[in-house]
Design a protein that fits this description.
There is one protein chain. With 335 residues, the chain is α/β, with parallel strands linked by helices. It has one domain: Alpha-Beta Barrel (TIM Barrel), CATH 3.20.20.70. The protein has 11 helices and 13 strands. Strand 1 and strand 2 form a beta hairpin.
Length: 335
């Protein structure tokens, strides 16, 4: 009830302003944020990728791009926190407006474009956090780095975040940075993963092994799924996150914001993202763990991701619409 009232007020504001205000308000609660959360549970621990997750429900990258609200989010009862996407250099992202609500569809369209304060600032933020649970850091390339030099940005970020991260996610699937999704093509992804896994091996010798995951798009055909799955096995990637937002507009045609460019998330993404997750599960046959994300707005949705082959799930847009109640409901469904 409390979150429903807060959401009603927040939804009167510009979506990006409301986003920032909600996170600042949550942070201001300090330890009191735990009162809103799902608490701790028994029998929820999951061992995936060599890590012990207190529970299987995480917050996806994008909500806290700069690692400013890690403690506040952790207090709500998430089993793991993923921050970012972060780039080597600060960048403002795309021009505003760039975030749109489609309330009747429980959806968002965003074309934020990796707006962030840069990897050095993000690391200072997470170092100040008291949280010592599982922290994923999602990395990307700067918008003005040519696609041919993309590996340089990913390697710089990997080097910087590796000592602090519990795992690192390589984002090659955002639709809001020009040509970024080209990195999912077989040749480019093969080259990128070769460079990243070699650097990860060197970093592991100094800091210990840490999982490296790749986040993929929902807008993949069967041949692309098979190719990415093969490369994940070839390079011994530790996990795939399926999926990012979609450029399709199934289910929102005719909405006043439906024609806005950017990635669509929320309920209309659920079927598409879950089907791509299921295809990856078939192609991988258990050789690479999967994290299911996209359109989770209920406990049943979270369970459906596990049934499709995921070991863990993440929420974002559903959390905007449902609030902390979604965390407890999803955790209960995964027990």
């Amino acid at each position: 009830m409390l979150y429903t009232l807060a959401r009603t007020a927040l939804f009167q504001l510009d979506p990006e302003l409301a986003h920032d205000l909600a996170l600042k308000s949550l942070s201001a609660l300090g330890p009191g944020a735990a009162w809103l959360g799902a608490g701790s549970g028994v029998g929820e621990t999951r061992r995936v990728m060599g890590l012990d997750f207190p529970n299987g429900v995480g917050i996806a990258a994008g909500l806290d791009k700069n690692g400013e609200y890690v403690d506040a989010l952790a207090a709500l009862g998430f089993g793991f926190i993923e921050v970012g996407t972060v780039t080597p250099r600060p960048q403002p992202g795309n021009p505003r407006p760039r975030l749109f609500r489609l309330e009747e569809h429980e959806a968002l369209i965003n074309r934020l474009g990796f707006n962030n304060l840069g990897v050095e600032r993000m690391l200072r933020n997470v170092e100040r956090a008291r949280f010592r649970g599982i922290l994923g850091i999602n990395i990307g390339k700067n918008f003005d780095t040519p696609i041919e030099r993309a590996a340089d940005d990913y390697l710089a970020c990997l080097e910087a975040v590796y000592p602090r991260a519990s795992y690192v996610t390589v984002n090659v699937s955002s639709p809001n940075t020009k040509d970024l999704r080209d990195l999912q093509s077989s040749a480019r992804l093969d080259e990128l993963l070769s460079a990243l896994m070699a650097r990860r091996a060197a970093l592991a010798a100094r800091h210990g092994p840490k999982p490296l995951l790749v986040k993929v798009a929902p807008d993949l055909d069967d041949a692309q799924v098979e190719a990415i799955a093969s490369l994940a096995v070839k390079h011994a990637v530790d996990g795939l996150i399926a999926t990012n937002t979609t450029i399709a507009r199934e289910g929102v045609a005719g909405h006043r914001a439906g024609a806005e460019t950017g990635g669509l998330s929320g309920r209309p993404l659920f079927a598409r993202s879950t089907e791509v997750l299921r295809r990856f599960a078939r192609a991988l046959g258990g050789r690479v763990p999967l994290v299911g994300v996209g359109g989770i707005l209920s406990g049943a949705d979270a369970k459906a991701k596990l049934d499709a082959g995921a070991s863990l799930v993440q929420v974002y847009t559903g959390f905007i619409y449902r609030g902390p109640a979604l965390i407890a409901e999803a955790r209960g469904a995964l027990r």
